[in-house]
Design goal:
Strand order of the largest sheet: 7-6-8-5-9
Largest sheet: 5 strands, mixed
CATH superfamily of the largest domain: Periplasmic binding protein-like II
Structural class: alpha/beta
Shape: elongated
Distance between the termini: 83 Å
CATH topology of the largest domain: D-Maltodextrin-Binding Protein, domain 2
Helix content: 25-40%
Low-confidence stretches: 1-35
Number of helices: 9
Strand content: 15-25%
Number of domains: 2
């Protein structure tokens, strides 16, 4: 009986290991390639696993403010995010009467756990921390942060971010504005944090803070409607950019299709048209550096 030499056995084991490693590489490549963007042909109402069969349930907070929603009524299609919601629905093949809007508070939208909606549109910034608990679609908007102050206050005269270092600044809890203030403005005192956007506005009007930081679209609305004596001091880019995405339950079967719809709207120019109509019409804003 012939016998393998030890050196030959070693060579055979090495060759087998190399072959297995090569097979493993092929599998991992296949897995990564499988995450390619889904076709909209696979995203029709009869194929989607929506909360309610044949209905697309979209959530947002209440009250729903301009320029994202008009008249506190997401169902009328007026306002940036109302229009985006219906555009996504239409791209997926849902008619307006197949869309149902529900209320979901901003701070609970990105909490872990099951969701009572298919996706949420509420100026929700895409962050790594939030993405641990929920899914996000492709971004449908990238917002800068803006500083709003009363016209007769010292903060209104700021020409740079350094000029705001000693200002008492207010922000809403759970928003990226807090991170934007601490990392970009770097004020000498901690920002004051408020529970709701209404509380932020009241703090500015009552002189509790020298200025507030919100996203630019909100700043345009605040100064046009809610705080007539306020003015936008300027805007600045949030750390890493402030991209908003449709929020979905973690590992939702709808995520790829919602992203495909957003990408399609982006490619066709429809998202840009919606943005121009409801946001950019407010005019230009100075940049703070």
């Amino acid at each position: 009986m012939s016998r393998f030499r030890p050196s030959l056995i070693v060579l055979l084991l090495v060759a087998a290991a190399a072959l297995l490693a090569a097979c493993g590489d092929d599998d991992s490549t296949t897995d990564s390639d499988s995450s390619e963007t889904v076709s909209l042909e696979d995203c029709t109402p009869d194929q989607l696993e929506t909360l309610q069969d044949g209905t697309l349930t979209i959530a947002t907070d209440k009250p729903a403010f301009p320029p994202y929603f008009e008249d506190n009524d997401p169902t009328n299609g007026k306002g940036f995010e109302s229009a985006v919601g219906y555009a996504i629905a239409d791209t997926l093949g849902f008619s307006e009467d197949q869309v149902e809007w529900v209320v979901e508070p901003f701070n609970s939208s990105y909490a872990p756990g099951p969701k009572d909606f298919d996706f949420d549109l509420n100026q929700i910034s895409i962050t790594d921390k939030r993405a641990e608990a929920v899914d996000f679609s492709s971004p449908y908007y990238t917002a800068d942060q803006a500083v709003v102050a009363l016209s007769d206050g010292e903060a209104a005269d700021a020409d740079s971010l350094d000029d705001l270092a000693d200002a008492d600044i207010g922000v809403q809890i759970g928003t990226t504005s807090l991170e934007a203030v601490t990392e970009t403005i770097e004020p000498s005192s901690e920002p004051q944090v408020f529970d709701t956007s209404n509380d932020v506005v009241s703090a500015l009007e009552n002189g509790q803070v020298d200025a507030v930081v919100v996203d630019t679209p909100t700043a345009l609305y605040l100064t046009a409607v809610q705080v007539p004596k306020g003015e936008i001091v300027g805007e600045f880019s949030a750390p890493g950019g402030d991209e908003w995405g449709a929020l979905l339950e973690k590992d939702s079967p709808l995520t790829d299709c919602i992203s495909a719809a957003v990408d399609s709207l982006q490619d066709s120019g429809e998202l840009e048209e919606i943005q121009q109509q409801w946001i950019n019409a407010g005019g230009g804003v100075a940049t703070l550096e």
